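Researcher: Final request for today, and then I'll write up notes for the group meeting. The sequence and the SMILES for fe (ii) ion follow.
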Amino acid sequence: MAVTIIDKLNHLLQDEIVGMHMYLHYSFIVSGPNMIPLKQYLTAQAADGLRHATLIGDKIASLGGTPVTKALDEEFPTSFDNAKQMLAACLKFEKEGIGEYTSLLHEVLNKDIALEMFLKTIIADEIHHVEELEKMLKEF
Ligand SMILES: [Fe+2]
Ligand SMILES: [Fe+2]
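Model: Predicted protein-fe (ii) ion complex:
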């Protein structure tokens, strides 16, 4: 069966749900001298994962698809020697996400302006996440 735009949006939805779980989990286990700001950051990132998941789920429903809200069977690392390693795992996750969004963007480019704008807006958010993580990692 051909992989449709809806399937790909569902993959992104499920990936955002993984991210939400990941950031929530990390907000629980983070420790060290930067624990307070990092916990705030990680909790906010979990909320942003929910925000993106909500946007995508609503879009899938608007397009007549069935949103899949089960997280992908994708494991994320759950133990770290330090917070720097944790942030590096977040950075890897964010970069992979940009790859997924960008690949769908290329498919709809100049074919579906609304979906194109929708994806570009989320990609801009994800790029911002990468930039923030890269800045945080500089000073560790
Ligand atoms: Fe996201
Ligand atoms: Fe993100």
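Model: The helical segments are 5-29, 35-62, 83-108, 113-138. Residues 94, 97, 126, 129 surround fe (ii) ion (ligand 2) (CB under 6 Å).
Researcher: Thanks, that's everything.
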